[in-house]
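Hi team,

Filling in the usual template for the complex we talked about on Friday. All components are listed, including any nucleic acid strands or ligand strings, so the model treats them as one assembly.

SUBMITTER: L.P.
PURPOSE: interface mapping
COMPONENTS: two
RESIDUES: 591
SEQUENCES:
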Amino acid sequence: MTTRPNSSSSTHSLHSSRGYHLQQKMAPYLFISPFLLLFAVFGVWPIVKSLVLSMYATSGPKDSVFVGTQNYRYLLADADFHTAVKNTVVFAFWSVVLQLPLALGLAMLLSRRWVRGRNLFRLAVFSPYLVGQVFVGVLFSVLFIPQYGLLNQGLHATVGLPLDTKWLADPALVMPALVLTALWLYTGLHMIYLLAALQAVERELYEAAQVDGANATQQFWAVTVPAIRPTLIYVLIMSTIGSFQLFELPYIMLNNTPGPNNSGLTIVMYLYQTGFVTGDLGYASAVGWTLALGVLLISLVQLRLTGAWKAREA
Amino acid sequence: MKPNRLTVFARGVTYVTLCLMAALTLTPLLWLLAAAFKGQNELFHYVFFPPPGLLTVVNFQELWEAMPFGRYMLNSVFVASTTVVVQLFFGSLAGFALAKYEFKGKRLFMVLMLATLMIPGQVTMAPLYELIYRLGLMDSFPGLIVPQAVSVFGIFLFRQYLLQVPDELMHAARIDGCSEFRIYWDIMMPISRPMVGAFCLTSFMATWNSFLWPQIILHHSGRFTLPVALNQLVGQYQQEYGTLMAGTLLSILPVLILFLLLQREFVEGLTAGAVKG
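RESULT (copied from the run log):
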C-alpha cells in the first residue's frame, strides 16, 4: 500500500489506485475492529451476563441454578447487606461533604494570580493520589495504631485526645478513620480539576463584577460558581461514584475483615465476600447490579439538583 | 498599585494556609520515608528521622527474606507496561477512526461505550471471572492484561484530541500516497504526543495500583503483583512495621518518580476529559 499512485503510468497504477481506494474505505473498520472485538467480549458481554447471572444461585464458576428474582429479594432482607449499604452511604456522604469544599477552597487560594510556587503547592497536595489505595491502606493502618501511631501522637499533643484511641478497633471510629484517609487521598485530585477550571475563568468577568460593586462573596456566587459549574458537577458526580466503590482502604486497614461489628463492611466488600470467598457469583452479581442502580439514581438526582441550581442562577 | 496593609495580611494568611495544608499532606509520606530506614528500637522513639548514624537498611533485608519482593516488582512492571502499550495501541487507533472517519454504526458504537462507562466495573467481576476461568487464564498475566486491554476512557481521550487536527493534513498525506495506517502511525501519533504521555501515565498508575481483580484471579504467589503481595505481607508481618513500610515505600516509588518526570503531561491527561467537557 505504500507505492505511490502515479497518474502518468499504466495498468499497474490503475490497479494500485483501486486498491488504494479500497483500503481507504475499509480503514475505519479495520482500525476499530480489534477494539470492538475486545470491547464486545470483555466489556459488553460481561454486563449482559452479570444481569443473567444475578438470577442464578451459584457455587463457584461451574455450578448454578436458576432462581429468578430470589437473589434480589434476599438482598432486601439481608441484614449484612443493609449494614454494607448504610456504611457506604455514610462514607460517601462525609467524603463528598468534606473533600469538595476543602478542594475548592485550596484551588481558589492557589488560583490567585500573585501566588508564587503554585506548582510546588499543587504537587504537594496532589501527591497522595499517586499512592495506590492498597499502599495508603498499609501506611495508614500503622499511622492509626494506638499509643505510638503518628495520628494519636499528633492529636494528643495538639488537642489532648487520649493516646489509646483505637481508631480501627472501635466500631464508632472505623468510619471516621476511613473518611479521614480518603480526605487525605482524594482532596488533591479534586483540587487539580477545580484549579484548572478556575484558571480558565476570564478575568474580564471579575473586573465587570467589580465595576458593578460586587464584593468577594457576591463575585463567588455570581461569577466563579457559574463559570466552573460543569467542573463542579463533574467532580461531585465522580467523587460520589468513586466513594460508593470503596473497597481497598477498609479491606487492607481492617486486615481483610469487615471490621468490628461490620463497621467497615462496604457494598463492594460484600460483593467480594459473597462472590469470591463464599463463591456465590449469582448473589454477588445481584449485589453489583443493586450498586449500579443506586449509583445511577444518585447521579441522576445530583444532575437534577445542580441543573435546577443553574436555572436559578441564570 | 502598591499592595496596602490589608492585602499584605490577606497574602500572609493565604501562604500560611497553603503551607499548612501542604505540610499536613506531606507528613504521612515523610513519616513513611523515615520509617522505612529506622530499626525496631528507633521506629517510634524518633517521630521522623533519627540521627544519621542510626539509619539502617535492615527493613529491606527483612523484606527480601520475607518474600521475593524483587520478583513482585518485576511482575508489576511487566503487567503495567504491557497493559499500557496494548491500551494505547487499540485506544488510539479506534479513537483515530472515530475522530476522522464516517462509517456505519459509529453512533451506536459511541452510545454503547458511553453506556458501559456508567456501570461500575465491579458489576462485571463475576462473569469476567467465569470467562477467564473458561479460557484457562486463571493465575496468569494474560488473565490480568486481556480484560483491561480496551480502555473506553482512552478511546474518548484520543478521539477528543484528534478531532482538532485539520482534515487537510490527511488529504495532503493521501495525495502523497500515504496509506491510512501510515496516516495514523506517521502523522496522528506524533501529533498526539502530549496525549500519549498523559494517557500512558494515568493508565500505568491505574494498573500499577489495581488490587481487586489481581486478588481475585492470582493464587500462585510467583505471579503476585505488588498490591496483592503487600496485602499478603500485612497478613504475615502485622507487627513488623519497619518491613511493611519498606515494602510500601518501594511500591509507591516508581509511580512517584514517573510523575515527577512527566508532571505536566500527567495533570493535562487527568483534566483533559473534565475541563474540555
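MY TAKE: The longest helix of chain B spans residues 5-36. Chain B touches chain A through 93 residues (CB under 8 Å).

Thanks, L.
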